[in-house]
Amino acid sequence: MLPNSRQTEPSEAVRTIHDPTTGETITFIETAEESGGERAVMRLELAPGTVVPPHAHPFEESFECLDGQLSFRLNGRVVELRPGDMVTAPRDVVHGLSNPSQAPVVLRVLGRPGPIAEYSVRIKFLLSRDGYLPTGGGPPRQLLIGAVVLHRAGMYFPPLPRWLFRSLIVALAALGRWRGRERFLLRRHPEYDRFLATVGKK
Length: 202
Prior knowledge:
By secondary structure, this protein is of the alpha+beta class. It has helices at 12-15, 114-129, 143-153, 162-178, 181-188, 191-198; strands at 16-19, 24-30, 40-46, 51-55, 60-67, 70-74, 77-81, 86-89, 95-98, 105-112. It is 32% helix and 28% strand. Helix 2 runs antiparallel to helix 6 (191-198) and helix 3 (143-153) crosses helix 4 (162-178).
């Protein structure tokens, strides 16, 4: 079982975030600040049909299924999760998840280290909602904005080899910053400033 957690500030409006483009809803049970930076603990609900495409990022995530049935892909291997089952995706290991059923799936997710796990998720939800990050395996509507964020977050999306993906992202992100896309993000989303601080890019 993942650790018990406190339910204090911040407000419910800040605790719960929703991405209508993917069907994901996250409630922060314990924020990074509340854990002293050790972890972020989240309740993740996946609507029927939700697919989170395979990806990798520089923080660890552990998933515990609380309700429903989930298909979890870890480094090319598919694991079916039912209530009580757990799986951990180490940092930089490709993983994805999907809810092929007609009922919601509820997971408890623990991310470590806490700050980068929490703010990577927060900024991902905001920018996915606005169409700036790839969802459903497709490209983002704003390629340069997506590249800036993916580069800052250290994320990887198959099927391109990592070296090729990262080379392309580095080049596109540099172009995006030169054309003011990062300044746009800082103006539009105050959370992006905190995100940059957590990934050590500020």
